[in-house]
Write a structure and sequence with these properties.
This protein has three helices and eleven strands, in the order ββαβββββββαββα. The strands form four sheets. A three-stranded antiparallel beta sheet has the order 2-1-5, with no helix packed on it. The radius of gyration is 16 Å and the shape is globular. It has one domain (about 1-175). The chain has helices at about 30-35, 115-130, 165-175; strands at about 5-10, 20, 45-50, 55-60, 60-65, 80-85, 95-105, 110, 115, 135, 150-155. It is of the alpha+beta class. The longest helix has 12 residues, at about 115-130.
Length: about 180
């Protein structure tokens, strides 16, 4: 058994095992020493709970041994996918970003996106159907915005939300 990190879903009681979102960090000791990895980067991270789909903001995680039942749970065989886009509500151009646990990619993955069109379509449909709930960093409801450019990225190392990251300028120029 190896150590991992987890955060608590804001939609569950703090002591509830159902509210534990395990980060599936392969090497927590390496992550905890990496200044660019979350939570060391000092930035918040937005994670979707795999049980209730509530997206919540986190600043730190708890280091612990995952329970055995985790291997047979909803979180088994999953990887983190970062969903990024610009808000677009009420003339708001604030960056939006959250992470969801998805089935490990069966098709080829790329560094800056998903080459599997089926998965890309599935994520966009989930956004349009309001699968994930919560609020964007700007305070608007988390829901799909028409005519937006969405970027998806498989995350081998979780990184916090940085609204000053240069990639947001690139997304603003594409919209």
């Amino acid at each position: 058994m190896r150590l991992d990190l987890f955060v608590h879903c804001s939609n569950h009681a703090p002591q509830s095992p159902a509210g534990q979102i395990w980060l599936r960090v392969s090497k927590p000791e390496q992550t905890l020493n990496d200044p660019t990895a979350w939570p060391n980067d000092g930035l918040p991270i937005f994670l979707a709970c795999p049980v209730c789909n509530q997206v919540s903001k986190h600043f730190s995680g708890v280091q612990a041994f995952p329970p055995e039942e985790l291997h047979n749970s909803l979180q088994s065989g999953k990887v983190w996918l970062r969903v990024s886009y610009l808000c677009g509500m009420e003339d708001c151009e604030a960056p939006v970003e959250f992470h969801v646990l998805m089935d490990a990619p069966k098709g080829q993955k790329t560094r800056d996106g998903i080459s599997d069109e089926v998965l890309r379509t599935s994520v966009l449909l989930s956004l349009q159907r309001n699968r994930w709930t919560g609020y964007r960093p700007c305070g608007h409801d988390l829901r799909a915005v028409p005519d937006r450019f969405y970027r998806f990225r498989w995350m081998e190392k979780l990184q916090g939300y940085d609204e000053l990251d240069p990639r947001w300028d690139e997304m603003r120029s594409i919209k």
